[in-house]
Design brief:
With 340 residues, this protein is of the alpha/beta class.
Amino acid sequence: MAVGIVAAKELTNSPNALTYFQQATHDSFVVFDIRPSDNAEQAKAALTSLANNPNIDSIITEAQYGNFVHELAKKHEKTKFSLIGIGSSPDLPAIRLASLNREYQSFTAGVLLANAGEKNSVGVVVADRRSPDSPEIRGILEGLHYGGSAAVPVVMTLEEVMRPDGLPRLKSIASRFLVLLDPVSQEQLAKLHDSGKWMLSMHNLPNMYPSVAAVPKPFFAEGMKEEVQALLNNSWQGGQTVAVAGPGFFNILRPASFSAKAVELEKAVEEGVQTGSVQPQAYTKPPQSQSASQQRLPDRSPSPSAEAANPPRGTSAQDGSSKAQSQQTPNGNSQQDPTQ
């Protein structure tokens, strides 16, 4: 079996990916044609070349190229295409999407925010408005409830953000955080940064700012393993989305933006939702008492991280031995952690 791989160099050259290429080639006699790409133009050229190769049985690439792959699949109906990442469920029998469970990812985000002190509202930025019952909005609410918070999402679209009154509206949201549910452009990200709020992104970002507190963990290698194994088992079916058990949901870039409890709890929740020991659907209703709900959460007090000692933009941090842990904001202000 011959499989073409098209993805960014940091994904195809990751230790997990390189180890799997070697293992699958040795154990299953899979032949890989790997095309690392530096940009979208290179990736599209590589995808076209692989699709035109009659010896290639399947092509695996990043979900961001979904629209381009959709057009290729119409012309090459015998080739199987696998997309890895966050995207829309495919409607062609030759395409399959391997993705994270968005409700579980959003649930984990909600738990982080609840334990970062969000009690009344949470800013949520979307490309297009979603139903309150969408996996992402539902997951955020369930995570907030699990964390003992009755906060509700305050949703703004990217179009609203970019209007003349967008920045004042962002700043008026009674939330220290903005959750970015959809991809954003550099211009949009710059304006979101100017709001003075921390950002927790559910997608990779075009560049970084000191206000970006958390980003998704890459799971391309895990998705690739899932797709190749399905091909080998003859269980691969197109026109559907399959869940990937990745290495976790978020990389915490700014631990000082959260409470110490939140960062520690996030790891346990990531594991819990993937093993089934934590069921997000059990937390659809807000807690009757935040203090009572908080008591069921692990209450460990790890020592302050180096990030807390050097918060972004030159802000200061209190001594971690104090009962009231100071939570930093990107604009240099501090806020007492109500969970302590």
